[in-house]
Amino acid sequence: MAIANTEMLFFLIKSLTKAEKRSFRLFAHRNADGADLLYMTLFDVIDKAKTFDEAKIRKEFPKLKTANFTNLKRHLYEQLMICLRLLKKDKQKNIKIREYIDFAYVLYGKGLQLQALEILNKARKLASSTYSDFSLITIIELEKMIQSRHITRSESEPIQQLVSESTEVGERINIRIRLSNLRLHLHKMYIEKGHIYDQKEGDELKQFFNIQLFGIEESDLGVFEKVYYYQSFVWYYYIIDDFNSCLKYAIKWVELFKSSDELQLRDINLFMRGYHYVLTSAFNIRNSSILEKYLDELEKLRKEMYSKFNLNSQIISFLYVHTGRMNFHFMKGSFEEGIKGVSRTLTRISKYKSKLDIHKIMVLYYKIAWMNLGSMNYSTAIKYLNAILNMSDKALREDIQIYARLMNIMAHYDIEKFNKIQFELLPETNTFFKSCTRINQVDTLIFEMFERVSVAPLMDRKEIFKKYYAKLMDKKDKPYEKRSFVYLDILFWIESKVKNVSLSEVIKAQNY
Fold first, then answer.
1. 56 occurs within a structural domain
2. If residue 107 lies in a helix (H) or strand (E), which one and from where to where?
3. Model pTM score
4. Does the residue 350 lie in any domain?
5. Nearest-angstrom CA–CA distance, 249 and 168
6. How confident is the model over 40-49, as pLDDT tens digits?
7. For residue 92, which phi and psi values (nearest 5 degrees)?
8. CA quadruple 213, 214, 218, 222: dihedral sign
C-alpha cells in the first residue's frame, strides 16, 4: 500500500512504540547505502516533530521537487508497513496465514505444485484453529485450482472432501456476513438516533430484525457465528430498551469467549466489547452484583493482558473499564470516590483524542459531567456539558444532546442561576427541542417543571417538585419513556431537592 499523504504518515510514525522504531531503523539499514536512506531522514524529521506541520517538514528537503518528495513519503510509508508486518507475523496468526498463502502462490508460479499444497495445508490448519474462515475459503479455492489443473497424486476421496469443505465454509461465511451486516445496520441506527422512539419504530425494527435472522438457528452455528448472533441480539434489545434480554445475550457472548482461549486470542477486542454490554445492561437495570462481578473480571483481564495489547486494544480497554467504573459509582451514589478517577479518564481522553470518534468523547464528557454534578462540582459539570453542546456534529446522538441540555439546567439550578435558566437556558433548550424529532413525554415534563420552578417563589418550589416527581414516576416504566431515566437520574435529583439532601445521599439511601 503506497500512501503519499503527509498527515497519515505523521500519525503512523507517532503511533510507533520505541521497540518498533528501533526495529525499523535496523530494518532500514540492513542493505541500504547512503543514497537509499533519504527516507530515513524524513522519518527522523517527523519523529522529532511535536505537532503536525506540513510546511515545516517540507522545508527540510528544499532540493527535492514536489513529485520526488511525494515519492519519498510513499516509499517511507511502504517500508514502515513492510517492517511492521514482519514484526507482527509471528504474533498475529492472521498475518501468518496470509504469508503462507503468498508463499503458496510463489511456489505455484515456479511450478512446484506439491510444495504449494504442502504449505497450504499448514495455512489450512492454522486458519481452522483460529476461526479464520475468510482466509480458509481462499486456501481451499487455491487448493481446488491446483488439484483441477495438475496431477498431484491425490486420491479421489480427499478431493471430494475438499469440495464438501468448500461448501460448508461457504455457508458459514454467508451466515457470518448476514450477521455482520445486521450488526452494522443496528450500530448505525443507534449512533444516528439512539434508542427506539415509539411503537411504530419498534415494530419496524422488529420486522427488519426477524427478516434478517430468518433461517438462522443458534444450534446450527459455529463458534464465531454464535458471537455475531449474540451480538446482534444485544444490539437489538439495547436499542429497544429491553436491558434484561440485552444482559442475557451479553453474558452468553462473554461466557463463550471465556470458554475458548483461541477465541480470545483471535479477537480480544470483541471479548472486551461483550463485557462492556454486560456492564452497561447491568447498570441500566440497577443490578449491582452482576456489574461488580463482571467489572472485576474485566479489570483483571485488562491487567493481565495490557502488556500484550496493541494501541487499539489499549484504547478499547480504557473506554470500557473507565465507563464501567463510573457507572458503578453512579449506581452506588459514591460520587466523591468516583471523582478521584476522573483525572485519569481525562488524561487518557487527551492521549487518545485523535483516535476517538466524537460519539465516544460525547458520552465520556456526559458521564464526567454527571460525576461532577453528583460531587457538587457544578461549574465543572457545566464546563463538560458545554463541551457537548458546542460539538460540531449536531446530528449525532440527539438523545445525549437533549439530556445534556436538561442536565445543564439542573446544574445551573444547583448554583441558583435562576435568571440564566429563565432568560437564556430555557429559551435555548426550547428552540433546540423544536428542531428535534425524538422528544418524548419525560423530556417535555422535565422542561415544563423547570419553566415553572425557575419563576416560582422559593416557598412554592418544593411542592412543584413533588408534583412533577409524581408525574415522572408514572412514566418510569412506560415503553419508549423509561430510557430517559437511564440517562438522566432526574427522580433522584428531584428527591434531593424535596428532602434538601445531596444527590449522593438519596442514591445511597435507596441502596440500603
1. yes
2. helix 93-109
3. 0.81
4. no
5. 26
6. 889 999 998 8
7. -115, 110
8. negative
